[in-house]
Amino acid sequence: MAGILSAIKLRETGFRNVTVYEKADRIGGTWRENTYPGIACDVPSHLYSYSFAPNPDWSHRFSPGDEIQAYLEDVARSHDVMEHIRFGDEVTSCEFDDRAWTIATASGRRARADFVIAATGVLHHPKYPDIEGLESFEGACFHSARWDHGVQLDGQRVGVVGTGSSGVQIVSDVVDRVGSLALFQRTAQWIMPQENPCYTEEEKRDFRLHPDRMRELRDEMSRGFTENFSNAVVDADSPQMAMVEELCRKNLETSVTDPVLREKLRPDYRAACKRLVISPDFYRAIQQPNAKLVTERIERVEPRGVRTADGRLHELDVLALATGFRVDRFLRPMRVTGLDGRKLDQVWAERPGAYLSISIPGFPNLFMLNGPNGPVGNFSLIDVAELQLAYIQQLIEVVVAGRCCGLCASEEAAERFERDRTEAAKRTIWMSGCRSWYLDDRGVPAAWPWAFDRFRERMAAPDLADYEMTA
Ligand code: NAP
Fold first, then answer.
1. 134-196+227-321, what's its fold?
2. Is 121 touching ligand 1 by the criterion CB < 6 Å?
3. Is the CB of 40 under 6 A from ligand 1?
4. What are the phi and psi torsion angles at 430 (to 5°)?
């Protein structure tokens, strides 16, 4: 998503020599990799679209993953991006030598670049659970982001580990066709109810005839999302958070009839502390007669299924691991070397960081989209990437105008940003007492801890006093 955006916008502003490196043989990032049953985006589709490429054909308010994949391919094609992509060639290293970057790829190619934009994504490297005996399982076993579509599910005994957004979507989708379904829950999740109506043909025709209506809808959705959610998650005491909590609680009370199951599904932390799960039908799914919620700790996996701490063996044909992602990787495993031989691996040895999530001291003319500690999880990442790219383009302009050869954030600015960020994080809902992928090794949310409006303001124009320029 962010790589396509970069190519389009850079070319629009006159850059002719733009190469996009894609290790796979197809574009799409998250939407190419995640094809599990039930996958959809829980950001409304007219908001989860590029601002410059509204799509009248979205089928639903929250459209499924394959539609998003097709949309991204369509945008890339119609904006002539495809010819700039090198497919099937993984970037292995980027090295700065005082003037420019040398990009090396797995195929042995070496290319020079004045600027490098890392659009490598956040939720990309699957996190496999460390469960004893996992490899001994005789059935089919795969991660949610590596779904094996060759495996038949109909009538099978299916187990799902994990109750994040992925696990919940999988369960809701497959329950009606599998023989039995066991959901292994380590931590209960709050579920935000959400209707997902489809757009009628008439509405789509109207969007086609009046594209302005899509823009208005996008703005309206963006405003609603920002005010009611994005701006509010950073203040645990906000009235909006209380409202979200109430909606989730009511959803649980009114949707789950069996009091024992209801208590098993009731989280013991505040709603939106973990990334909020949005689902119209998870509670329906988990109450089906062929579904069971397993809350006993998983002890080990055996050839025939999953053994829980109470000694029970849950026999399975298929085991899906919806266990999330390693969220601290970003550009890695690429080897990135900046000024004076500085290695990114060493700079990020403790944890990844960057000034405004975009620039790393000592790494000139390297900029990240959806980099560390940015607004992730609770916003449209397309909006985020568009704002970041407009900011990055202003930095590139400084170099192109001849004011310097290269620029990156100063150590002082990066440290100040990190200090302020860590302090502000204390007030967020993410630090109200739960374990989640937002929290880094210190328990500090690796996320933008201020209102989204502040992010917009900071992205409007760079403060060049925070940057070091090289001659
Ligand atoms: P996730 O939110 O990190 O959830 C992972 C789940 O696996 C958690 O329930 C976790 O339990 C469980 N788990 C991990 N290791 C385990 C183990 N060893 N034993 C038992 N359970 C284990 O991952 P995700 O569901 O893939 O979602 C990741 C993010 O992707 C989301 O938060 C969201 O930002 C994005 N996403 C978005 C959508 C969308 O609709 N836009 C859809 C899917 C994903 P604990 O809670 O106890 O750690």
1. FAD/NAD(P)-binding domain (3.50.50)
2. no
3. yes
4. -65, -20
